[in-house]
Amino acid sequence: xxxxxxxxxxxxxxxxxxxxxxxxxxxxxxxxxxxxxxxxxxxxxxxxxxxxxxxxxxxxxxxxxxxxxxxxxxxxxxxxxxxxxxxxxxxxxxxxxxxxxxxxxxxxxxxxxxxxxxxxxxxxxxxxxxxxxxxxxxxxxxxxxxxxxxxxxxxxxxxxxxxxxxxxxxxxxxxxxxxxxxxxxxxxxxxxxxxxxxxxxxxxxxxxxxxxxxxxxxxxxxxxxxxxxxxxxxxxxxxxxxxxxxxxxxxxxxxxxxxxxxxxxxxxxxxxxxxxxxxxxxxxxxxxxxxxxxxxxxxxxxxxxxxxxxxxxxxxxxxxxxxxxxxxxxxxxxxxxxxxxxxxxxxxxxxxxxxxxxxxxxxxxxxxxxxxxxxxxxxxxxxxxxxxxxxxxxxxxxxxxxxxxxxxxxxxxxxxxxxxxxxxxxxxxxxxxxxxxxxxxxxxxxxxxxxxxxxxxxxxxxxxxxxxxxxxxxxxxxxxxxxxxxxxxxxxxxxxxxxxxxxxxxxxxxxxxxxxxxxxxxxxxxxxxxxx
Amino acid sequence: xxxxxxxxxxxxxxxxxxxxxxxxxxxxxxxxxxxxxxxxxxxxxxxxxxxxxxxxxxxxxxxxxxxxxxxxxxxxxxxxxxxxxxxxxxxxxxxxxxxxxxxxxxxxxxxxxxxxxxxxxxxxxxxxxxxxxxxxxxxxxxxxxxxxxxxxxxxxxxxxxxxxxxxxxxxxxxxxxxxxxxxxxxxxxxxxxxx
Lengths: 532, 195
Description:
The complex is a heterodimer of chains A (about 525) and B (about 200). Chain A has 20 helices and 19 strands. With about 525 residues, chain A is α/β, with parallel strands linked by helices. Chain A has 3 domains: about 1-220, Thiamin diphosphate (ThDP)-binding fold, Pyr/PP domains (Rossmann fold); about 225-330, Rossmann fold (3-Layer(aba) Sandwich), CATH 3.40.50.920; about 355-525, Rossmann fold (3-Layer(aba) Sandwich). In chain A, helix 19 links the parallel strand 18 (about 485) and strand 19 (about 510-515). In chain A, helix 1 (about 10-20) packs across helix 2 (about 35-40), helix 4 (about 60-70) runs parallel beside helix 6 (about 90-95) and helix 11 crosses helix 14 (about 325-330). The longest helix of chain A is centred in the middle third of the chain and has 24 residues, at about 200-220. The mean pLDDT of chain A is about 95. Chain B has about 200 residues and is of the alpha/beta class. Chain B has a single domain (about 1-100, about 120-195), classed as Pyruvate-ferredoxin Oxidoreductase, domain 3 (3-Layer(aba) Sandwich), CATH 3.40.920. Classes of the chains: A alpha/beta (about 525), B alpha/beta (about 200). The interface between A and B is large, with 52 and 51 residues. Strand 7 (about 170-175) of chain A pairs antiparallel with strand 2 (about 30-35) of chain B.
């Protein structure tokens, strides 16, 4: 057994490699990106030729992983929480098809929205899909539960959802790893109709998913990942899910608390264990990172004899991630207060890098659109979303991957002219292409600027599917060549670029302007590694 | 033994390298370590911090509770002050004095230094200048680490060994540069405390 220092994400990656996966499928997204990057860099993974190239988006990743499972091999698919929305169609239906080789779906949630547009809780997807969810509390559990997830997946013949949150994904600690097991050999499903979700087969599959529920719940009671921990002070019982356990233990240690506790890492919720704790204390505090998923299940709609508190009751703030101070406050305790932040300290928000091509693109766009007034630019998810902030104030929306193109189309349909979309290259191939097809089919007047930095920049510069393909993709989707224009976003071309954009804003159909300059960060890295 | 450290700076200034050096030194000294990092959006020139916890007992929380941090170790003066709510009353604030100015309303550094000096246990050094003298401005992060080295609860040799291991792939010159920066930082802090 060797102990290595790993991020929570990396422990999941190592756990998956050691579980004998034959492939990881993912689209970069904070806080999940490091899992796939770790596998890409892993020597074992390279020797075994484990598939680890990026996918176009989370849906294609989920489907490819399901295909690998169909062929009998183990696969991991990773995404950030909102990526599971993109993959949801495939994910929910994979619970109906079930799996052949083990399939683990990793969703990394981002409470407090460090790098996201919402803080949805993926445990809801576990309930929605009727699948088992594992939620590690620390880096060691990240490793152990990943390995357990593959075992359970093959035991149930169903996918297993693994859920972490930002703090654990991006925190390091020592992890003991076991030997790697071999990969599965290829083997087709025993039942040739398993993956055919025609209603006649799907009804049968759904029934077997329902029949599996009691087995899954019994495992959650008995497999040891959910633990009832004795305590002498029965005035309160603690239910701590995932990483909330760490914050509670920190405070319990500091204040010498001795409440009985149920540590939860394995769902469906182990009803018998919850009942046993509740009966011994009658008052429960539910600590969970994310939504009040468990609290809502326990408190329900009707009054119960148990006193249940948590995020819904107001004992814990309804939004944002937990920390030791919040947990202490929920217990009626106060931790030491430090000094206040001196008034002289000013905010330092993230900003576009000096020399970034998005900057010159926004300068040209701002000048070109100035005569029409504000409120016409729909944008998307990426570094260029920082164009919303001063000094650019250049965009008016950021909703979900690809929404810039389709929102511009809808606004144009409503009569807004000009209607502009600003989207990055990787976001465009993730989910912008289909929206462009909608606009082309109807010849909707929209000006779409693809700000092409030839990488997936915000998540640290992963390979972009769009690189050197954008022009031909747009042409293939039917954009007229006279209105498919490439520009070079450099300060010296500012006037020319402004003129080009201004001309396209007047066009009564679909224009695509590809503003192309390599990301300054990837360019620097490339030069550095070339110099070696 | 328990040392809770907040590392702070601006995205791209190398606080994660400091964390890596301390983390490895702690693991090699058979201590427990937890280190929470910030990845993603804020790395683009924004304020970044890392919570680093070292102990001879298992560490539970990945985040340091407010008011109990033993040290703020910062590569930028204003960023050192952003996290003082975490600092214990007797905690140390060790920081580079050289501002990283990428915002229009960056305060006058005189006011920043006044606030830093209000914290009893402070070490304020021009790490950029010291790093240049040691060979390259790029190692100012390791200079700050050197300045903090006496308060970490880790042996100096353990930090040196960790630098050698972490920069091994980059060659002897880079290792020597970083070791020199560590030493120069340690000496600068010692000199300041004697004044």
